[in-house]
Specification:
single chain, alpha/beta, six-stranded mixed β-sheet, globular
Length: 203
C-alpha cells in the first residue's frame, strides 16, 4: 500500500498537469467513449497501455476470463454495464480481448479441480462452457500450451456469441451502428491477434 500511496502523490504532483486539460473537459462535458473494451482482470493487462489511449477513450469491463454472461442472467453487473455502454454512451465498437497465459481459462480446462477450492470461479466459468464444446469438436489432438492458446481464442468467440444475445446489441449490429472485434493479447511479445472471420492475424 505504501507504494500505491506514493504513486498517487507522485501522480498528483508530477503527472496530473499533463492531463489537466483532458480531465477538465471530462469533468465538465462528461464521458463520450466510443469503444467498450472487455478484458481479463489479470494484472499483466493494461488496456490503455496496449491501445495507447487517453482517459475518456475506453469504457472497460474486467473480470476473470473476459466473460460476458448471456442476456437475462440475473444479478449480472457485466450485463448492466454492456447495456449502459450501448444505450447511454452509444458505443460504436466492442472489443473482447483475451490474453495468453490466462489463469481463468486454465481453470476452464481443469474444471473438476475447482469446486472445492474456488467454488465461485467454478460457477462463473459456466458462462465459458461452450468453449469446452468447441475444443472437443475441433482440437482433440491439441495438448499443453497449444490447447490453452486454442481455448483462449475460442473463449473470446464464445463471449462474442454471448454479447449477441443482448437485444440492444443485436439491434445495433443489424442497423450497422455497432461493430464487435475479437482480440488476443500476447503478453510475451506485445502482439495483438485479431479474428478476421475465419482466422487470427497480427494487427
Amino acid at each position: 500500500m505504501e507504494k500505491l500511496t506514493k504513486g498517487v502523490q507522485d501522480f498528483k504532483v508530477n503527472h496530473f498537469s499533463t492531463y489537466r486539460e483532458i480531465f477538465e473537459q471530462l469533468s465538465v462535458g462528461g464521458q463520450h467513449p466510443r469503444i467498450l473494451f472487455i478484458t481479463c482482470s489479470d494484472s499483466r493487462i493494461t488496456p490503455s497501455l496496449i491501445t495507447q489511449t487517453q482517459p475518456g477513450e475506453l469504457f472497460i469491463i474486467r473480470n476473470a476470463g473476459n466473460i460476458i454472461p448471456p442476456y437475462g442472467t440475473t444479478n449480472c453487473g457485466e450485463g448492466a454495464t454492456v447495456e449502459y455502454a450501448v444505450q447511454a454512451l452509444e458505443i460504436k465498437h466492442i472489443i473482447v480481448c483475451g490474453h495468453t497465459h490466462c489463469g481463468a481459462i486454465k481453470g476452464l480446462l481443469h474444471l473438476n479441480s475447482l469446486p472445492q477450492d474456488m467454488p465461485l470461479l467454478y460457477d462463473w466459468l459456466k458462462y465459458a462452457q461452450p468453449t469446452n464444446l468447441r475444443l472437443q469438436q475441433r482440437y482433440q489432438e491439441y495438448e499443453g500450451e497449444d490447447l490453452l492458446n486454442a481455448a483462449i481464442e475460442e473463449n473470446v468467440l464464445t463471449q462474442i456469441e454471448n454479447l449477441q444475445t443482448y437485444p440492444a446489441i443485436q439491434a445495433k449490429l443489424d442497423s450497422g451502428t455497432l461493430n464487435i472485434h475479437a482480440w488476443v493479447y500476447k503478453i510475451r511479445s506485445g502482439e495483438v491477434l485479431a479474428y478476421t472471420g475465419d482466422h487470427w492475424e497480427v494487427l
